[in-house]
User: Fold these one by one.
Assistant:
Number 1:
Amino acid sequence: MGELRAYAALAGAQARSAATYRWSFVTEMLANMGGTVFDALAVLVLFRATPTVGGFSLREAVLIVGLSSAGFALADFSVGNVDRLKTYVRAGTLDAVLVRPLAALPQLLLMDIPLRKALRVVLGFTLLGGAVVINDVAWTPARVLLVVLAPIAAAVFFSSIFVSSASLAFWWVDSGEIGSAFTYGGRDFTAYPITVFGDTFRGLFAYALGFAFVAYQPALALLGRTDPLGLPPWSGFLSPLVAGVAAVLAAVVWRAGIRHYRSTGS
Amino acid sequence: MIVMRDLRKDFTVRVKAGRLRRHKRTVSAVGGITLGIERGEMVGYIGPNGAGKSTTLKMLTGVLTPSSGEVSVCGLAPVPQRTRLALRIGVVFGQRSQLWWDLPLRESFALLRHVYRVPAAEHEARLRRCRALLDLDEFLDTPVRQLSLGQRMRGELTAALLHGPEVLFLDEPTIGLDVVSKQAVRSFLAELGAGGDVTLVLTTHDLADIERLCRRLVVIDHGRVVHDGTIEALHARYGSRRSLVADLVDPLPEGFALPGAAITATEADRHRVTFALEGATAGAAVAGLVAAVGVRDLSLLEPDIEDVVARLYATPDPSDAP
């Protein structure tokens, strides 16, 4: 209980600090909003050229984009700034975090609450809501549960990717933008029906890393479509499980990383 | 209170060898320290840059995981029990801020009360004491980024003490401070230590910090303890010498000698001469010099800690020989 109040106090402090730089906040928020709109526009533009992509209609594709961007926006909002870890590791700022009586990861996340990204979450969920409406889904209790859980599972999954790719910095200080290949690359991958990708690439990203379960499989389960790639119909309901496994793995990587932290000279 | 047994920390570094190839090399930052510190002790930790002082402190505070050996602080293992330990220790890193950069000092303190879950009354009492002793009032409402280094350091000290820690770790608390701020920090720490219930461990490059504060001095170099005892014992053991610098009216005559003092340098065409005092008291040396030559100015230099440590390392401990 006391710890929760401590985190809340940290969050409040962060908001007050951000308020001292009001204009940069407004411009960043606008830039961020633009980003989300363009992501959705890219898909629409694609369908101007062709009526179906990878065997999916525009409507169905919008559901996939909706799940992907709602999940990603939520993850990016709550955990995305963990990618600043490399700066903290390089500068040794993490020391100050580690001598406080709170867990390191939440403290890091609260060092910068990206309110500017909040609008993306709203947009992402609006898109998802719209997609659910235009796709007349044959509702069953299981599907109702899934439409609630899937974006959360997607957010947990992306958060795990954010945390594990940021943890690279503990071993490799100049990891640079390699982590982005999995975070932003993963978002772009999940925004399309995975049938459009080549076998090897799809095998790696969709199944080995699990990105198929972020948007594609749950969308199939909601639509009641059979998977052209052959996974059983219930595989869409596995997405919370896949997200849970990813979260456990991310926690292991994070812990190992903290133990490996080297700080700096002084 | 603090126990270290054969504590080690190795770092792997990659060394450039050719355009793309890198060789891995293991560097030992702390090479087997065994040390015990009792409740209420004030221990000064010194050594040249890179000796392993900060690394040791970071292992004691749970920031770094030791490569091997045992360590316990307040009966806790620093890394596995990091958050529990954090409630019982205070940490001031001279070159890292614990405060919120954009917020007034007052707000940083209020936040720390929540972070450390301190009852309001206790918090108030401790803050009041720090405000009085460290003169915080004039800048309590200034954002931290606008504070001078001396003001910020006083803020850091307060921040580290508001939860009533049993052990206070200070990594170079006086680094970069002006003389007045150094004095303020030292007298505050002296007052704190006089109470006898706070254990104080500080690293420094400034011997005056130690002389003022610490009865016990631990010197480390190349990751090993090379001295553990009082300052007097250190000087006696390694024969560190004060030096007397004199500016003369006329050049020093050739063949001049002072009993109990050796000439270590002459500058400015023998108008300035430095003697190392070996047995002679400062008074006797000055008297001898003034009697023989015209003296314009005199200064007496305390032995430099870097110098002491350098000499220390040049004199290998026989028990350490392979």
Number 2:
Amino acid sequence: MTRQMTGAKMIVQTLIDQGVDTVFGYPGGAVLPIYDEVFQQNSIKHILVRHEQGAVHAAEGYARSTGKPGVVLVTSGPGATNAVTGLTDALLDSIPIVVLTGQVPTFMIGSDAFQEADTVGITRPCTKHNWLVKETDQLSGVLHEAFHVATSGRPGPVLVDIPKDVQFATGTYTPKAPSTSHYQPKVKGDLEEITELVAAMEKAKRPVFYTGGGVINSGPGASQLLRELVEATGFPITSTLMGLGAYPASGEKWLGMLGMHGLYEANMAMHGCDLMINIGARFDDRITGVVDSFSPKSKKAHIDIDPSSINKVIRIDIPIVGDVGHVLEDLLKVWKSRGRKTNSEAVAKWWQQIEEWRSVDCLKFKQEGKVIRPQYALSRLEELTKKHDRYICTEVGQHQMWAAQYLGFEDPNRWMTSGGLGTMGYGFPASIGVQMAHPESLVINVAGEASWLMNMQEMGTAIQYNLPVKQFILNNERLGMVRQWQELLHGERYSQSWSEALPDFVKLAEAFGAKGIICSDPADLDDAIMEMLNYDGPVIFDCLVEKHENCFPMIPSGKAHNEMLLGDAQTQGVIDAKGSVLV
Amino acid sequence: MSALKIKKGATSHSAYNLRPNFSDVIERHTLAVLVENEPGVLARVIGLFSGRGYNIDSLTVAEVDHTGHLSRITIVTSGTPQVIEQIKAQLGRIVSVHDVHDLTVEGASVERELAMFKVSGKGDHRVEALRLADIFRANVVDSTLESFVFEITGAPEKIDAFADLMRPLGLVEVARTGVAALSRGD
């Protein structure tokens, strides 16, 4: 069935066909025909953001909390360039996003027209794929393909650039159909490889599961299979920042997050294991520390849907290319059919060793005196909200790492944080996207005051759509992580890492019509958090915390997992010249 | 060259072929990349090489299948075995790329390049240039009283050798197409 319609109508029709219910966007000259169509329909809700970067992060929040692609609609030129940070963020974290940009009419492309930018050129390296559509007849086909590419294989952001004359012209609409595109990534893993991994698991004395965002991206079924596998084998499991929630934090086999600010027991287990089973993670430099001494004695298996992830950083002994869900299903089948064997005696010994590492209690802290320690603030937030139907976003910096350490995630898709790109300003708009997708749930953005200010304009969006997002700002009046590195690496010369001229956050909230809460006394903290939770509407919570707290544990740059720093003692001079050039 | 076990149709190969070879030896590989013939596809491939810091020794591109909208890009690149494997995997994940073949490891292949040389000189130099061109089976495609333009086809090494010989004889300009390559047999 084909129908004639304008390009603009086609865009809205495609979105409806694709099951899109929410679009985050900002109008402008080159997308006016599309906005005219948006005006004349009721199927899709359009969320007017206050800045295009916010639109993309909101779509990322929507996508990560639902597993569905997030959709963005922005204009040409600055609308498109403002989307670049979000696109890069989504690329590095493998988040499915479809961004539609307006473009100057085809006959004006290349003339330096008003609000013209080479959008496909600019976004080529920061999208999984992008298209410039020059004929209306091709528009719906490209749009359906865009959704297919964004969501197939390793997910990622795509962009479709649509000149204004293509939006006005009439063409033939092609309805959604099973993709005939040559792009059909392989999802089933090689059975020989899977069997080899099972054989290694049967013999392993010191195994560890190292899981990542790939488990979350593979869908809730993958997390279920992972849980089954962990419980059945009794192997310890750690996860990257991106993978938190795939295995429950309350689970017995959970070691906590690994990596630069990961838990001592998790990093030591990675260093000391004899079989590392990487499931949907990519050996990011925040995880490996110095590559040469990364887990020196282990056999390494890697399950990843993207063949380029394998052997990119770390040499792999058992590579398995496939979707995590599909591979885990086969892995469990093979393992069961071979008699559910593990080297349980050795694994029990391994657990004794892990318990020893656990007893270091690397996250312990003392709340003393009249100043709130950030760890305490997050512990209280955890205690008072863990029973809620809760989604957590973060900005980027110390607060992000503390949130990963002190908050527990029981389910996938509940934790939205900018992992790969480390985008300050991500969390607040992301929380708006999450709240749109889950209007009845508790959505909290754990923020630092500096990150939060980067996209504070989105308060307008939160108010306009009555989104009760809770902005929990750990305010230390510093760029805490920058300050920490300056202390460790740059002789305590705190260059530009102060948050000068901060606003009064309570007044700021009130100026937007939201609620502001300030808390500086540990004794008041619980009541203040409860006040935030009980308020039906957006809240800015200004939590004044200790200004010079450093985030530990920490693997200093250029060091290995077993060279972690556990606390403030003796941090001077631990990073040598070679380490200090790393970021 | 290391014998990496890459079967034909490298983008859909078994993960067995991802067994690493972490040698430090720099290898030169010729890759044949079959791509969708669409605007920007060359920029995607080149952008991958520049963005990730890989080398391009030579690159040729032209449409090879008009009805199927396919172009063939032949890239000569160099790097350690790990880097070469990364390049192939990264090329394979570009959405417009249909197929990546590493002609260097997928059995025997033939490589050819076309080059044109402008050589100017008089007397003995001119005679010697013409004589060597004949030995190398280069054709004269333009001539004045003081210059020749030779056209030569062959493996890159042959063209290098011809260039070395022409240099003392008055070589003034060279244009080379870069390598086109095909696997031998069927």
